[in-house]
Structure prediction request, 335 residues.
Amino acid sequence: MKYNDINFNKKTVLITGGAGFIGSNLAFYFQNNYPNCKVVVLDCFRSGETFSNGNLKSFGHFKNLLGFNGIVISGDINDKKLLKELEINYKFDYIFHQAAISDTTVSEQDLMIKTNVNAYENLLKIAIKHKANMIYASSAATYGDSNRFEVGHESPNNVYGFSKVMMDNITFEYLKKDLNISIVGLKYFNVYGSREFFKNKTASMVLQFGHQILKGLTPKLFEGSDKILRDFIYIEDIIQANILATNPKRSGVYNIGTGKARSFEDIVNILQKELEIDNGKEYIPNPYVGSYQFFTEANIESTKEFLGYNPRFEMEEGIKVYIPEIKRLFQEEVK
Ligand SMILES: NC(=O)c1ccc[n+]([C@@H]2O[C@H](COP(=O)([O-])OP(=O)(O)OC[C@H]3O[C@@H](n4cnc5c(N)ncnc54)[C@H](O)[C@@H]3O)[C@@H](O)[C@H]2O)c1
Prediction:
């Protein structure tokens, strides 16, 4: 599906974090729709190293790129020498910056700020030199404890959310300058869909509940889950937003969600219906109280107006189209 009239054939596109969930979907979007687009994936890929929370330092996985025929570079966005080489060896037209410590429970503040904030600014400098448009991933985690999900009302409650606020602040600073490029920040809400499996425990609860149900287990929900509401957004709508962000003169920071909060209980109900397996539900205490978002709902008015974005997947549809992939992963990776 093409979301705008831009012909990306013969363009050069850098996708940082391209071996991860969203970045790899973007890489295939270009490969499938614009076969003559030169796609460069930069990702540090997993090494087995972990953070103090026990989770992997990188969720990048070669299997997310099986069938990809572009250029793959294994490297760290914190490596200034590598960034210099990219600046010299390529001439990018678009940079889709998805690389980040994407795990919201990581507590290493030094590395979080370096990777998410400082490396972003260094990539932005390359974008300016190349006259490339920058489209980067911000997050709904910027809102944290806020009850107003509009740009300007951020209140992050963990260092991850803070790092994304800092990225947005850098963006606003650069947009005050007279630059010849556009810079678009996309505050993704809770994304689910193909190629998220290798995020392990940080993959969406759609996938995790799906696999619990297929294993014949009773899905474990946090207590009060019917009142824990989030804006869950299907990967295709994330791709739509990224592509619309390449239209000229769209600079700004926008929410990318469905505009409708849904409960974790809803996810389980829809999955149980679609999978035709009902093992009931079990409720467990929530260990993340204090740094946990109990309600998120994207205000997408300005996203609609300025990007022309219109989410196509309500949760019922998103989960329905995702079911065959949830089953395939269960057969090939879980069982
Ligand atoms: N998935 C969501 O629900 C969601 C929501 C809001 C924002 N985001 C943001 O969207 C972006 C993509 O997230 P995702 O869900 O695809 O996560 P992901 O972890 O699957 O992808 C991030 C990729 O970045 C790579 N990476 C991490 N540190 C790197 C470094 N120093 N150098 C090079 N590569 C590095 C990882 O290897 C990984 O492949 C991230 O910026 C994330 O913060 C995601």
Q: What stands out?
A: The pocket of nicotinamide-adenine-dinucleotide is lined by residues 17, 19-23, 43-45, 58-60, 76-78, 98-102, 115, 137, 139, 188, 190-191, 199 (CB under 6 Å). The mean pLDDT is 97. The chain has one domain: 12-334.
